Amino acid sequence: MPNTFVWYELMTTDLDAAETFYGGVVGWSAKDANMPGMRYDLLSVGDAQFGGAIALTPEMTQAGARPGWMAHIGIDDVDAGAQRVKAAGGSVHRPPQDIPGVGRFAMVADPHGAAFFLFAPLAAQMPPARPAPGSPGSPGWHELHAGELESDFAFYSKLFGWTKGEAHDMGPMGVYQLFAAGGDPIGGMMTKTADTSAPHWLYYFNVAEIQAAAGRVRAGGGQVLGGPQEVPGGMFALVAPPV
Q1: Do 92 and 184 reside in the same domain of the chain?
Q2: Domain around 177
């Protein structure tokens, strides 16, 4: 589907440990995608795929890659989209290229540096079955800690046609702006706080019960960085995998 989030990708220095951690916390399964020259595992909720995990090589880390999550946003034309990103003041970190038998992608960043992928599947490629919305383990929310809320929202709105939903006054943290891609809100944006090192996207995954999930994080060697706490629209927790 164009103009919304279609795939999620974990980059890690220890793929086996990361998959064990996330399997214990949110119940994901992983299998080797058999990609030549690299290890890339497909992540699933039940039988439904939603993302992949890649093992960072020493060469990747030397080039600046770090463990973390990134997402692919669907677009009809990756090449034209990359040009629009650049024209709007963003950056193209990895120019458009093909994934044989899958589609075409580019790694880009908004004008303040928050990175994401553009992705277009092959015309004849059937997308994999996706997890049911709201099901445990499925992606549930997309949050931009922006360099500056209004200018960054304008960038994404022009690129993907996103529209504003409700805006919530978070007091000293500023305004939390919900956004939609043609339906119900799929995420929120806010100007990053002073103690946030750099603008970035943050991805939330659904769990059946937040306190139990936080306990599984700790039992798996991870850290609960914030919450659990109530936020507009539901309860969420921020977590980190073992390092």
Answers
A1: no
A2: 139-240
